[in-house]
Amino acid sequence: MLGSVVHLVRGAHVGFVLAREGALALVDPAELPPHLRLVLRIGRMLERSGLGVGAGPLQRALTRLGPSYVKFGQFLATRPDIVGMHAARDLETLQDRVPPFPQETAIRVVEAALGKPVAHLFVSFSPPVAAASIAQVHKAHILDVDGTERVLAIKIMRPGVRERFQRDLQVMRFMARVVHALSPKAERLRPREVVEILARSVMMEMDFRLEAAAMSELAQNTKDDADFRVPKPDWELTARDVLSSEWIEGIRLNDHAAIAAAGHDAKALGRAVIQSFLRHAIRDGFFHADMHPGNLFVDPTGTLVAVDFGIMGRLGHMERRFLAEILLGFILRDYKRVAQVHFEAGYVPAHHSVEDFAQAIRAIGEPIHQRKADEISMAKVLTLLFDITALFDMSTRTELVMLQKTMVVVEGVARSLDPKLDMWTGAEPVVRSWITRNLGPVGRVESLGRAALTITDVVSDIPDLAQRLRRILVRLDEAGSGDGNRLDAFARSERRRAIWSTVALWGIAIGALVMAFR
């Protein structure tokens, strides 16, 4: 009970900040039941004047609420399917920058994580060079056993950040339950699922051993790529709270003047950005999902280098084939094939017509081919495609939404380097190479091999599955007599939950009003 009161107070504070910064204006009243429309009207009365300029309402509110909510906003920026495109664009510009914590604290974290004094681990250890809500980065020199000196980037977890995130996540869970109980229509936004996905994402991001593993996997995938590389993690100097990796001497891709002064080919870099991303997504099924200019460098050799691997995306074989074939279909104007790929993947229900779907896709594709190649946005094509598929009951695919959102960022970076970049000509070699390799004779033989292994596994599991089914049926038979009592208890529990959720929401609204008039 006390925990619920604490969550209620903190939820009221969140609601007050959202209302004051105008974030409630993004909520459509038509989607709400009458009692929630009243709460929304009360909240809109708290908006402060002069909100029409500067940052967007969600950006302002989440920045005021602190690092956990900034991270939540950055996560939601990758999910326009949940919050809508307008809110997602507002959240894209959230800046995860905070003052660094003291050097003495950083040294204590490193020594506790690695079990040795900093003076024994490094030849030198600099003050912080960058800081964010979860961690900050230091530059260090290390002496190898052969006498070689190397430069490392040391990423250090901010003390107390896990506890704060856990506390704020409990409040988010509480508020998600309230929203679910009071507005069944809001369940299409899956508030509870969204919070749990965020929780898993943040918890993974707060274990630097997992980020080092992502860095290592991407490095292995790209070891033969001539125009892209990944810094190597130093596993001996990496722990849950400390990540050590190769220091990158390079120029950020948003520093166009420095790139030109260093003599790098900006057009080649733009092409490398888009082709590298597509190779990772289509060829490897594992891609950097946060490729903004601050995470991309060009080194002295002209090679593209990525850093910060806290957010990664994965695509299965089916999703990679889907992406490759729809891109090639648009390049070749084969709209029937693009439609068939959607149906073969099971993304569009079978009761729809392939021909009708192909006609809808043609409405996207044909206007594209009336324009110059360097004016066509690949990301916009995918966005329009997902809009069309919504009309045909296409289910939301989280991994494809993340891919599309990342492609928007990647395309922006590539075009900032070369405004005349032909995205489709750049994409075609990567797409054709994958299709030739995976859908040609060699790929078909490999697919048959995978299918044979799957069938063998299923056949070998049949005896175990039969035993499990028998045990389940016995338990169901034994439990049958008590079902009536259980259903009555469940109904009473749900009624109590609905009553308390209503009280909680009104408590949040009243608490926000109290804060407003202090």
Question: Can you tell me about this structure?
Answer:
- This is Ubiquinone biosynthesis protein.
- Pathway: Cofactor biosynthesis; ubiquinone biosynthesis [regulation].
- Keywords: Cell inner membrane, Cell membrane, Membrane, Transmembrane, Transmembrane helix, Ubiquinone, Ubiquinone biosynthesis.
- This protein has 518 residues and is α+β, with helices and mostly antiparallel strands.
- Among the domains are: 2-95 and 163-204, no CATH class; 250-439, no CATH class.
- The protein has 21 helices and ten strands.
- It has helices spanning 2-20, 34-44, 57-65, 67-77, 80-83, 85-92, 103-114, 118-121, 161-182, 191-205, 208-221, 256-261, 266-284, 317-332, 335-344, 354-368, 378-391, 398-417, 423-439, 441-479, 483-516, and strands at 124-131, 135-143, 149-157, 228-229, 242-246, 251-252, 286-288, 296-298, 304-306, 312-314.
- The protein has a four-stranded antiparallel β-sheet. A four-stranded mixed β-sheet has the order 4-9-8-6. Strands 7-10 form a two-stranded antiparallel sheet.
- A hairpin with a 3-residue loop joins strand 1 (124-131) and strand 2.
- Helix 3 runs antiparallel to helix 4.
- The protein is globular.
- The two termini are 26 Å apart.
- The relative contact order is 0.09.
